């Protein structure tokens, strides 16, 4: 137990529902040891984000160096990277490590609120996507990355192909942003495999941190030795069960009850 190590590089959610906090809860639930490199600190609760402050670039790099100098990290994921400078520095540093990298391009929330500076989007495309084992955008992020306004399954498949051209080995577009596609995600990889992965839709408004949790779960299962598609299927089941255990804690959407 806890003999495998996963790393999350992302932002802190002071409300405890998403970001680094959700990732650590996921890692613990799936029985991998979780490490973190904090990119930014947020002042937020269940209603929204009131302030964001990025860490200094040297501090971010020092965190990553400290972890890799001591631990054998099997897999890593990225979450909120905030700006072009953080993305550039993270991508440059991660080139040194040939382990699977799950890139969750945190750009737009599930409600459609933009979370990233405009200049950062191209840095994601040019520097991080070519290193990715998989990229896991939601509907709104996929819109930003491709320029396609997604309205249905066909649009998602077209968009996934466009994102795949940016260099990742695989793409998983999360369909939960559309009412007709809740519980449905589309997977495509460089080898031409494509599939709609469908799970039971759990009707709850307490979904804060679900995107972070999915990418952290994929990262965890890869760290445990499962292949990518097995890891995605296991992660989707983990999300389903965690949504069933989700709970209300504030005035807005509550967090997942991370399944154990």
Describe the structure.
The structure is a single chain. By secondary structure, the protein is an alpha/beta fold. The chain has one domain (5-244): Ribokinase (UDP-N-acetylmuramoyl-L-alanine:D-glutamate ligase, 3-Layer(aba) Sandwich). The chain contains eight helices and nine strands. It has helices at residues 19-30, 57-70, 84-94, 119-128, 139-146, 153-164, 210-223, 228-244, and strands at 5-13, 33-44, 49-54, 73-78, 101-103, 134-135, 170-174, 184-189, 194-198. Strands 3-2-1-4-5-6 form a six-stranded mixed beta sheet. Helix 2 (57-70) runs parallel beside helix 3 (84-94), helix 3 (84-94) runs parallel beside helix 4 (119-128) and helix 5 crosses helix 6. It starts with a strand and ends in a 16-residue tail after the last helix. The model has no long low-confidence stretch (mean pLDDT 93).
